[in-house]
């Protein structure tokens, strides 16, 4: 009886741990453009054309948004949060969110954002901004962040708290505090009354890049290959887990048919362990996928600058950038296939698990006069 009660609780735990599927970009709008000054363009996920953003243009999960010189756009999300995209910026909205995450994630490849996050949003989801240099997890309401072309990232918190994590150090910034980190400066120094000169720092960043493109391009290139290899390891592990789980499910079915309660219980426990690891792998694949996409976005920017007729004239190291560009684009294509494979496996397995648990819960309810779900095995 104790074993059967334990098994029933275990199955109910499975059911309540499994979240509903995330609504993807094509299914619901994430918000609307409320104001545009100059030129702001939007490229939908898996599309190659751009549309010019205007007031009331809807934005969706997976959209890429760019602003030109002397341009700015104001976006209001459905949860009432506000994002101001400053001039010469490129962001992606909520890409690669795993089925087990409750999160809004904005990727800032380069440029500057002002964010005012609603209390409603913070009650429901984590909000983060990822840059090539670090991740900012938001626990407050009002902050500014810039990510410049040489990898310099600046954050200022106007109210609330922001956690800055560069995978080496993690620090929390409070109101009126800020920090500056870069590819070279890994230590996160919390500075009180942080007042950056955004325009000066942006101009200095451009000059740093143009003065040594091979140096900064090398940083990003190395990160791309390192993260790609790590991501492949995670996806391969997920594939192995799913194969093992399928074998255990078949053994569990056989044990149930044979009336072997002990073996059946043992297989369920092993499946539970796999489900736990599966969910953690799912989060990691989404997280490292977002980190990798930030680096792809920045290297693509280097490629655009290296091809610019005027800028290329004073871009030292442009030959290195151009020589690496084709290889990076091939890696990006591999990355997209890898992410699609990993997410597809995760979603399919989550769906299978949900279907299985619904069936078992239905059976349990229908057998309300019995002591537990496995009484027929006694």
Describe this structure in words.
The protein is α+β, with helices and mostly antiparallel strands and 378 residues long. It has two domains: 175 residues; 184 residues, Jelly Rolls (Sandwich). Helix content is 47%, strand content 23%. The chain has a 17-stranded mixed sheet that branches. A hairpin with a 5-residue loop joins strand 12 and strand 13. Helix 1 packs across helix 6. The chain is globular. The termini are close together.
Uncertain stretches of 5 or more adjacent residues: 1-26, 369-378
Number of helices: 6
Overall body shape: globular
- Helix-residue proportion: 40-55%
- Arithmetic mean of pLDDT: 84
The portion of residues forming beta strands comes to 15-25%
What is the N-to-C order of secondary-structure elements (H for helix, E for strand)? HEEEEEEEEEHEEEEEEEEHHHH
Number of strands: 17
Alpha-beta content class: alpha+beta
Number of domains: 2
What is the CATH class name of the largest domain? Mainly Beta
For this structure, the CATH topology of the largest domain is Jelly Rolls
Strand count, sense and closure of the main sheet? 17 strands, mixed
Radius of gyration: 24 Å
């Amino acid at each position: 009886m104790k074993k059967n009660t334990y098994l029933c609780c275990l199955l109910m735990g499975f059911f309540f741990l499994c979240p509903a599927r995330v609504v993807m970009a094509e299914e619901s709008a994430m918000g609307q453009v409320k104001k545009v000054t100059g030129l702001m363009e939007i490229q939908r996920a898996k599309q190659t054309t751009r549309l010019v953003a205007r007031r009331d243009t809807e934005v969706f999960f997976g959209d890429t948004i760019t602003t030109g010189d002397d341009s700015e756009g104001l976006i209001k999300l459905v949860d009432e949060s506000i994002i101001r995209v400053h001039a010469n910026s490129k962001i992606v909205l909520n890409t690669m969110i795993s089925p087990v995450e409750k999160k809004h994630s904005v990727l800032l490849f380069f440029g500057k954002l002002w964010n005012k996050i609603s209390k409603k949003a913070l009650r429901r989801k984590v909000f983060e901004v990822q840059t090539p240099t670090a991740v900012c997890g938001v626990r407050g309401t009002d902050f500014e962040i810039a990510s410049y072309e040489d990898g310099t990232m600046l954050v200022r918190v106007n109210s609330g708290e922001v956690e800055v994590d560069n995978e080496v150090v993690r620090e929390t910034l409070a109101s009126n505090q800020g920090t500056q980190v870069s590819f070279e400066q890994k230590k996160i120094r919390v500075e009180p009354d942080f007042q950056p000169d955004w325009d000066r720092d942006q101009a200095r960043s451009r000059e740093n890049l143009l003065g040594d493109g091979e140096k900064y391009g090398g940083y990003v290139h190395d990160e791309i290959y390192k993260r790609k290899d790590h991501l492949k390891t995670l996806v391969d592990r997920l594939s192995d887990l799913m194969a093992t789980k399928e074998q255990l499910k078949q053994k569990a079915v056989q044990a149930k048919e044979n009336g072997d309660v002990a073996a059946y219980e043992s297989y369920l426990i092993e499946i539970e362990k796999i489900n736990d690891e599966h969910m953690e792998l799912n989060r990691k694949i989404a997280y490292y996928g977002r980190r990798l996409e930030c680096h792809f976005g920045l290297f693509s920017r280097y490629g655009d600058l290296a091809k610019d007729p005027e800028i290329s004239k004073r871009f030292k190291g442009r030959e290195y950038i151009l020589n690496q560009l084709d290889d990076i684009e091939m890696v990006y294509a591999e990355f997209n296939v890898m992410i699609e494979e990993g997410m597809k496996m995760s979603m399919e397995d989550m769906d299978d698990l949900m279907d299985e648990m619904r069936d078992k819960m239905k059976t349990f309810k229908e057998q309300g006069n019995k002591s537990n779900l496995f009484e027929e095995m006694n």
